[in-house]
Amino acid sequence: MHVVIPLYPRFTALDAVGPYTVLAFAPGFTVTFAAERPGPVTDDRGSLTLTATASYADVPAPDVVVVPGGPGTLDVLEDEALLGWIRQAHEHTRWTTSVCSGSLLLGAAGLLEGARATTHWALLDFLGNVGAEPVAERVVEHGRIVTAAGVSAGIDMALTLLARASDATTAQSVQLAIEYDPQPPFTCGSPRTAPEGLVERALAIIT
Amino acid sequence: MHVVIPLYPRFTALDAVGPYTVLAFAPGFTVTFAAERPGPVTDDRGSLTLTATASYADVPAPDVVVVPGGPGTLDVLEDEALLGWIRQAHEHTRWTTSVCSGSLLLGAAGLLEGARATTHWALLDFLGNVGAEPVAERVVEHGRIVTAAGVSAGIDMALTLLARASDATTAQSVQLAIEYDPQPPFTCGSPRTAPEGLVERALAIIT
């Protein structure tokens, strides 16, 4: 199973590396980071650079696509090199997926018309603009399109996907291998559970 | 607050990028990836390359050190460039931390003598070899040494650390910003909760 993760400037690192780690540990999976041109791509904080080893032209027919999000999403909403690749790759994939604002790119590529989909809580309303039905859930499956909520939700999405693509025991094995037994120190990771005033502080961090 | 994450060949990507994302989003924090020499460092799957932008000599006095783990840990247990840097950086840090097998490197540097510490569940017994008291908890604080369990535990560790280094509200803001409201698809992320036979399958993945 060949997974391709496209990178673009100012992506959010965990959006890409969460699903990457899950899928790269899965037996029989290989993961390739791609960009318009191979080379270094720097994240939204400006302090982490990942290497894209393939161009989009090098990977026309992946089995799985994982589109990460990040502040840079807004700069590539009309980038036909990326959107065109997503569109044509989707003709070949078994699953086309996104994390965080990555779903806006699936939408901009025309893949979310009438689809149930999710994104980061701060952007949920924008999904309507690309024809999707926004759903405030952590992982949303709509046929072979799977979207995840913000940043860290990509880990849950990738494990869910792996259970479909392989089997539940394989996904469980990877979950145990990466010791994914989360114990967040606070109960505030969603606007539904966050104490009053926290949404404004979180928005100040991400915008 | 200056955080340095040392990279070495065959580290596990999420060990580094989980804490990185948490701390890089924190107001007033900057994070630098370092290695013996600046340049690309490739992970344990061979398919993700991160760029170290500093040498160890460039970052002698960080406020926080986060040492990631991975299969490559075993190859650097006697690497004096890395161990010597950890040892002398620890003289300056407010917190010296690790994820997964990274704690074996803290131990090899001589920092865990008599300390309560943790690591990936598969390696817990090895901590005794470096003089530590192994503790099967997700995040273990022993003075200014903070160790995390396997791979994904670095996210919980970094949020715990951030609450100490800044305040609880700041840590909560970052937790909400990265939508860390985990909903793992299975309850099997620890040997305590994993169904029978899964430990052997997970070990086959990571070894």
UniProtKB/TrEMBL annotation, chains A, B:
Known Gene3D superfamilies for this protein? Answer: 3.40.50.880
Pfam families, per the entry = DJ-1_PfpI
Q: SUPFAM superfamilies in the record, alphabetically?
A: Class I glutamine amidotransferase-like
Q: Where is the DJ-1/PfpI domain?
A: 2-163
The UniProt entry's GO biological process terms, in alphabetical order, are: regulation of DNA-templated transcription
| InterPro entries the UniProt entry points to | Class_I_gatase-like, DJ-1/PfpI, INH-QAR
Name by which UniProt lists this protein: DJ-1/PfpI family protein
Q: Which organism is it from?
A: Nonomuraea maritima
